[in-house]
Amino acid sequence: MATPLPADRFLAALRAEGVTVVEHPGWRTHNRNQAGAWGPVAGVMIHHTVSSGTASSVELCYNGYDGLPGPLCHGVIAKDGSVHLVASGRANHAGGGDPSVLRAVVTETYGDRPPAPREHQGSSNAVDGNSRFYGFECINLGNGSDPWPAAQLDAIERVSAALCRAHGWGAKSVIGHLEWSDWKSDPKGFGMPGMRDRVQKRLAAAPIKNPPAGIPAGKPAAPRLQPFPGSSFFRKETSSPIITAMGRRLVAEGCSAYTVGPSPRWGEADRLSYAKWQHKLGFRGSDADGVPGAASWNALKVPFTK
Questions:
Q1: pLDDT for position 222
Q2: Among 97-111, 187-201, 212-226, 268-282, which stretch is predicted with the lowest mean pLDDT?
Q3: What is the per-residue pLDDT across 236-286, written as a single tens digit (0 to 9) for each?
Q4: Is CATH 3.40.80.10 the right assignment for the domain spanning 7-203?
Q5: Where does the record place a coiled coil (predicted)?
Q6: pLDDT score of 116 more than 80
Protein backbone atom coordinates (compact mmCIF):
# COMPACT_ATOMS: atom_id res chain seq x y z
CA MET A 1 0.00 0.00 0.00
CA ALA A 2 1.08 3.56 -0.59
CA THR A 3 0.58 7.16 0.45
CA PRO A 4 -2.03 8.79 -1.84
CA LEU A 5 -0.72 11.21 -4.44
CA PRO A 6 -1.34 14.90 -3.71
CA ALA A 7 -3.38 16.75 -6.33
CA ASP A 8 -0.45 18.10 -8.36
CA ARG A 9 1.30 14.72 -8.63
CA PHE A 10 -2.01 12.97 -9.38
CA LEU A 11 -2.66 15.39 -12.24
CA ALA A 12 0.90 15.14 -13.56
CA ALA A 13 0.79 11.32 -13.51
CA LEU A 14 -2.38 11.29 -15.65
CA ARG A 15 -1.02 13.80 -18.13
CA ALA A 16 2.27 11.95 -18.41
CA GLU A 17 0.31 8.86 -19.47
CA GLY A 18 -1.39 10.85 -22.25
CA VAL A 19 -4.75 11.29 -20.51
CA THR A 20 -6.96 14.16 -21.71
CA VAL A 21 -7.71 15.85 -18.39
CA VAL A 22 -10.47 18.35 -17.59
CA GLU A 23 -10.16 20.00 -14.17
CA HIS A 24 -13.55 20.60 -12.55
CA PRO A 25 -13.51 23.79 -10.45
CA GLY A 26 -12.61 23.05 -6.84
CA TRP A 27 -11.53 19.44 -7.38
CA ARG A 28 -8.17 19.87 -5.61
CA THR A 29 -9.80 20.46 -2.21
CA HIS A 30 -13.04 18.50 -2.70
CA ASN A 31 -13.15 15.28 -0.64
CA ARG A 32 -14.74 13.37 2.23
CA ASN A 33 -11.64 13.37 4.45
CA GLN A 34 -13.74 14.49 7.40
CA ALA A 35 -15.70 11.22 7.19
CA GLY A 36 -12.78 8.79 7.51
CA ALA A 37 -9.27 7.85 6.52
CA TRP A 38 -7.83 8.49 3.07
CA GLY A 39 -5.02 6.02 2.49
CA PRO A 40 -2.87 4.13 2.44
CA VAL A 41 -4.08 3.27 -1.04
CA ALA A 42 -3.86 -0.19 -2.57
CA GLY A 43 -5.22 0.24 -6.08
CA VAL A 44 -7.67 1.64 -8.60
CA MET A 45 -11.39 0.81 -8.81
CA ILE A 46 -13.47 1.17 -11.98
CA HIS A 47 -17.24 1.89 -11.96
CA HIS A 48 -20.05 2.83 -14.32
CA THR A 49 -22.31 5.79 -13.58
CA VAL A 50 -25.73 4.45 -14.69
CA SER A 51 -26.19 7.84 -16.35
CA SER A 52 -25.75 9.56 -19.70
CA GLY A 53 -24.41 12.95 -20.70
CA THR A 54 -21.03 14.31 -19.69
CA ALA A 55 -22.02 17.56 -17.94
CA SER A 56 -24.80 16.05 -15.84
CA SER A 57 -22.72 12.97 -14.93
CA VAL A 58 -19.78 15.11 -13.82
CA GLU A 59 -22.05 17.29 -11.66
CA LEU A 60 -23.63 14.19 -10.13
CA CYS A 61 -20.23 12.74 -9.26
CA TYR A 62 -19.02 16.05 -7.85
CA ASN A 63 -22.09 16.80 -5.70
CA GLY A 64 -23.54 13.37 -4.96
CA TYR A 65 -27.21 13.00 -4.07
CA ASP A 66 -29.52 12.57 -1.08
CA GLY A 67 -28.08 9.85 1.11
CA LEU A 68 -24.68 9.80 -0.59
CA PRO A 69 -22.80 13.11 -0.59
CA GLY A 70 -20.12 13.79 -3.16
CA PRO A 71 -17.56 13.41 -4.38
CA LEU A 72 -18.51 9.98 -5.72
CA CYS A 73 -15.13 9.32 -7.37
CA HIS A 74 -11.85 11.00 -8.23
CA GLY A 75 -12.41 11.23 -11.96
CA VAL A 76 -15.28 10.81 -14.43
CA ILE A 77 -14.33 9.13 -17.71
CA ALA A 78 -16.52 10.38 -20.56
CA LYS A 79 -17.45 8.57 -23.75
CA ASP A 80 -14.96 10.69 -25.71
CA GLY A 81 -12.09 9.62 -23.45
CA SER A 82 -11.78 12.88 -21.53
CA VAL A 83 -11.26 12.48 -17.80
CA HIS A 84 -12.95 15.05 -15.56
CA LEU A 85 -11.29 15.39 -12.16
CA VAL A 86 -13.77 15.99 -9.32
CA ALA A 87 -11.89 15.11 -6.13
CA SER A 88 -8.56 14.81 -4.37
CA GLY A 89 -8.85 12.76 -1.21
CA ARG A 90 -11.42 10.36 0.14
CA ALA A 91 -14.45 9.84 -2.11
CA ASN A 92 -17.73 7.92 -1.73
CA HIS A 93 -17.22 5.35 -4.47
CA ALA A 94 -16.19 1.92 -3.18
CA GLY A 95 -17.98 1.40 0.13
CA GLY A 96 -17.46 -1.76 2.12
CA GLY A 97 -15.90 -4.78 0.46
CA ASP A 98 -14.21 -8.09 0.95
CA PRO A 99 -10.96 -8.24 2.98
CA SER A 100 -9.78 -11.25 0.97
CA VAL A 101 -9.99 -9.13 -2.19
CA LEU A 102 -7.97 -6.36 -0.52
CA ARG A 103 -5.28 -8.88 0.48
CA ALA A 104 -5.15 -10.24 -3.06
CA VAL A 105 -4.82 -6.75 -4.53
CA VAL A 106 -2.14 -5.64 -2.06
CA THR A 107 -0.05 -8.76 -2.62
CA GLU A 108 -1.00 -9.10 -6.32
CA THR A 109 -1.24 -12.85 -5.79
CA TYR A 110 -4.37 -13.78 -7.77
CA GLY A 111 -4.81 -15.29 -11.20
CA ASP A 112 -7.32 -14.09 -13.78
CA ARG A 113 -9.61 -12.58 -11.15
CA PRO A 114 -9.47 -11.78 -7.43
CA PRO A 115 -11.34 -14.15 -5.11
CA ALA A 116 -15.11 -13.80 -5.38
CA PRO A 117 -16.32 -11.15 -2.92
CA ARG A 118 -18.61 -12.20 -0.08
CA GLU A 119 -18.89 -8.88 1.74
CA HIS A 120 -20.51 -5.52 1.04
CA GLN A 121 -21.31 -2.20 2.67
CA GLY A 122 -22.68 -2.90 6.15
CA SER A 123 -21.78 -6.58 6.33
CA SER A 124 -19.92 -7.80 9.40
CA ASN A 125 -16.44 -8.32 7.93
CA ALA A 126 -16.44 -5.58 5.29
CA VAL A 127 -13.44 -3.27 5.01
CA ASP A 128 -13.55 0.38 3.95
CA GLY A 129 -12.78 0.66 0.26
CA ASN A 130 -13.16 4.44 0.21
CA SER A 131 -9.89 4.73 2.12
CA ARG A 132 -7.99 2.20 0.00
CA PHE A 133 -8.83 2.85 -3.66
CA TYR A 134 -8.76 5.60 -6.22
CA GLY A 135 -12.11 5.56 -8.00
CA PHE A 136 -13.11 6.37 -11.57
CA GLU A 137 -16.74 6.54 -12.71
CA CYS A 138 -17.21 5.81 -16.40
CA ILE A 139 -20.25 7.27 -18.12
CA ASN A 140 -22.39 4.30 -19.14
CA LEU A 141 -25.97 3.20 -18.51
CA GLY A 142 -24.73 -0.09 -17.12
CA ASN A 143 -27.38 -2.13 -18.93
CA GLY A 144 -24.96 -4.29 -20.91
CA SER A 145 -25.97 -2.75 -24.24
CA ASP A 146 -24.79 0.84 -23.88
CA PRO A 147 -21.56 0.88 -25.91
CA TRP A 148 -18.06 1.45 -24.58
CA PRO A 149 -16.28 3.52 -27.24
CA ALA A 150 -12.63 2.78 -27.95
CA ALA A 151 -11.63 6.23 -26.68
CA GLN A 152 -13.30 5.58 -23.34
CA LEU A 153 -11.68 2.17 -22.90
CA ASP A 154 -8.33 3.70 -23.83
CA ALA A 155 -8.80 6.35 -21.12
CA ILE A 156 -9.62 3.67 -18.52
CA GLU A 157 -6.43 1.87 -19.50
CA ARG A 158 -4.38 5.07 -19.30
CA VAL A 159 -5.65 6.34 -15.91
CA SER A 160 -5.17 2.89 -14.42
CA ALA A 161 -1.64 2.58 -15.80
CA ALA A 162 -0.78 6.12 -14.71
CA LEU A 163 -1.53 5.42 -11.05
CA CYS A 164 0.04 1.96 -11.15
CA ARG A 165 3.18 3.47 -12.66
CA ALA A 166 3.26 6.27 -10.07
CA HIS A 167 3.03 3.81 -7.18
CA GLY A 168 5.04 0.93 -8.64
CA TRP A 169 2.00 -1.38 -8.79
CA GLY A 170 1.19 -4.02 -11.37
CA ALA A 171 -2.09 -4.29 -13.26
CA LYS A 172 -3.56 -6.58 -10.59
CA SER A 173 -3.99 -3.46 -8.47
CA VAL A 174 -6.83 -2.47 -10.84
CA ILE A 175 -10.25 -3.97 -10.09
CA GLY A 176 -13.90 -3.39 -10.89
CA HIS A 177 -16.52 -2.58 -8.27
CA LEU A 178 -18.13 -5.98 -8.91
CA GLU A 179 -14.84 -7.60 -7.85
CA TRP A 180 -14.92 -5.70 -4.53
CA SER A 181 -18.51 -6.05 -3.30
CA ASP A 182 -20.98 -8.90 -3.78
CA TRP A 183 -23.74 -6.30 -4.17
CA LYS A 184 -22.25 -4.64 -7.25
CA SER A 185 -22.24 -5.37 -10.98
CA ASP A 186 -20.13 -2.54 -12.38
CA PRO A 187 -18.54 -2.04 -14.76
CA LYS A 188 -20.92 -3.92 -17.04
CA GLY A 189 -20.16 -4.31 -20.72
CA PHE A 190 -16.46 -5.19 -20.70
CA GLY A 191 -14.31 -7.58 -18.68
CA MET A 192 -11.80 -6.52 -16.05
CA PRO A 193 -9.34 -9.36 -16.87
CA GLY A 194 -9.01 -8.00 -20.41
CA MET A 195 -8.59 -4.46 -19.10
CA ARG A 196 -5.85 -5.63 -16.72
CA ASP A 197 -4.08 -7.22 -19.69
CA ARG A 198 -4.19 -3.88 -21.48
CA VAL A 199 -2.87 -2.04 -18.43
CA GLN A 200 -0.03 -4.51 -17.96
CA LYS A 201 1.04 -4.17 -21.60
CA ARG A 202 1.07 -0.40 -21.21
CA LEU A 203 3.15 -0.64 -18.04
CA ALA A 204 5.68 -2.80 -19.89
CA ALA A 205 6.08 -0.18 -22.62
CA ALA A 206 9.07 2.17 -22.82
CA PRO A 207 9.09 5.05 -20.33
CA ILE A 208 7.32 8.21 -21.37
CA LYS A 209 9.60 10.84 -22.91
CA ASN A 210 9.62 14.46 -21.77
CA PRO A 211 6.96 14.09 -19.04
CA PRO A 212 5.43 17.10 -17.30
CA ALA A 213 7.20 18.61 -14.30
CA GLY A 214 6.99 16.40 -11.26
CA ILE A 215 7.13 13.08 -13.13
CA PRO A 216 10.52 11.39 -13.66
CA ALA A 217 11.57 10.62 -17.23
CA GLY A 218 11.78 6.92 -16.49
CA LYS A 219 10.46 4.73 -13.76
CA PRO A 220 13.23 4.33 -11.17
CA ALA A 221 14.63 0.90 -10.59
CA ALA A 222 12.63 -0.97 -8.00
CA PRO A 223 14.38 -1.06 -4.64
CA ARG A 224 15.81 -4.40 -3.57
CA LEU A 225 13.52 -5.95 -0.98
CA GLN A 226 14.24 -8.34 1.87
CA PRO A 227 13.02 -11.87 1.04
CA PHE A 228 10.70 -13.47 3.57
CA PRO A 229 13.01 -15.22 6.07
CA GLY A 230 10.37 -17.72 7.23
CA SER A 231 8.06 -17.57 10.24
CA SER A 232 10.54 -19.45 12.43
CA PHE A 233 12.96 -16.52 12.11
CA PHE A 234 10.73 -14.39 14.34
CA ARG A 235 11.48 -15.56 17.87
CA LYS A 236 12.94 -13.92 20.95
CA GLU A 237 16.43 -15.30 20.28
CA THR A 238 16.64 -13.51 16.93
CA SER A 239 18.70 -10.33 16.71
CA SER A 240 19.12 -9.01 13.19
CA PRO A 241 19.07 -5.73 11.22
CA ILE A 242 16.16 -7.31 9.31
CA ILE A 243 14.03 -6.85 12.44
CA THR A 244 15.00 -3.18 12.63
CA ALA A 245 14.21 -2.63 8.95
CA MET A 246 10.86 -4.35 9.39
CA GLY A 247 10.05 -2.19 12.40
CA ARG A 248 10.82 1.00 10.52
CA ARG A 249 8.47 -0.03 7.74
CA LEU A 250 5.74 -0.78 10.29
CA VAL A 251 6.19 2.67 11.81
CA ALA A 252 5.99 4.22 8.33
CA GLU A 253 2.71 2.37 7.72
CA GLY A 254 1.23 3.69 10.98
CA CYS A 255 1.34 0.27 12.64
CA SER A 256 3.58 1.01 15.60
CA ALA A 257 3.22 -0.44 19.09
CA TYR A 258 6.76 0.65 19.95
CA THR A 259 7.59 2.87 22.92
CA VAL A 260 11.29 3.43 22.17
CA GLY A 261 11.49 2.52 18.46
CA PRO A 262 12.45 -0.62 16.53
CA SER A 263 15.55 -2.57 17.56
CA PRO A 264 17.38 -5.58 16.10
CA ARG A 265 15.94 -8.06 18.64
CA TRP A 266 12.50 -9.55 18.02
CA GLY A 267 10.15 -8.77 20.90
CA GLU A 268 6.56 -8.28 21.96
CA ALA A 269 6.42 -4.73 20.55
CA ASP A 270 7.41 -6.13 17.16
CA ARG A 271 4.70 -8.77 17.34
CA LEU A 272 2.03 -6.27 18.36
CA SER A 273 3.11 -3.86 15.64
CA TYR A 274 3.05 -6.59 13.02
CA ALA A 275 -0.42 -7.65 14.18
CA LYS A 276 -1.57 -4.10 13.46
CA TRP A 277 -0.16 -4.47 9.93
CA GLN A 278 -1.95 -7.78 9.42
CA HIS A 279 -5.22 -6.18 10.55
CA LYS A 280 -4.60 -3.30 8.16
CA LEU A 281 -4.33 -5.82 5.31
CA GLY A 282 -7.63 -7.40 6.35
CA PHE A 283 -6.33 -10.50 8.15
CA ARG A 284 -8.29 -11.63 11.19
CA GLY A 285 -8.11 -14.25 13.94
CA SER A 286 -5.09 -16.54 13.90
CA ASP A 287 -4.00 -14.97 10.61
CA ALA A 288 -3.36 -11.73 12.53
CA ASP A 289 -1.34 -13.10 15.45
CA GLY A 290 1.64 -10.83 14.82
CA VAL A 291 3.92 -13.53 13.40
CA PRO A 292 4.91 -12.57 9.83
CA GLY A 293 3.74 -14.71 6.94
CA ALA A 294 4.89 -14.57 3.33
CA ALA A 295 1.92 -12.59 1.93
CA SER A 296 1.93 -9.87 4.57
CA TRP A 297 5.75 -9.67 4.52
CA ASN A 298 5.86 -9.20 0.76
CA ALA A 299 3.18 -6.49 1.02
CA LEU A 300 5.25 -4.64 3.68
CA LYS A 301 8.20 -4.25 1.25
CA VAL A 302 11.03 -4.34 3.78
CA PRO A 303 14.24 -2.90 2.27
CA PHE A 304 17.07 -5.39 1.80
CA THR A 305 19.71 -5.40 4.52
CA LYS A 306 22.74 -7.61 4.96
A1: 55
A2: 212-226
A3: 999 999 999 999 999 988 899 999 889 999 999 999 999 999 888 878 888
A4: yes
A5: none
A6: yes
Domain 231-300 belongs to what architecture?
Orthogonal Bundle (1.10)
> Is the CB of residue 256 less than 8 Å from the CB of residue 279?
no
Domain boundaries, the chain: 7-203, 231-300
Q: Which amino acid is at 305?
A: T
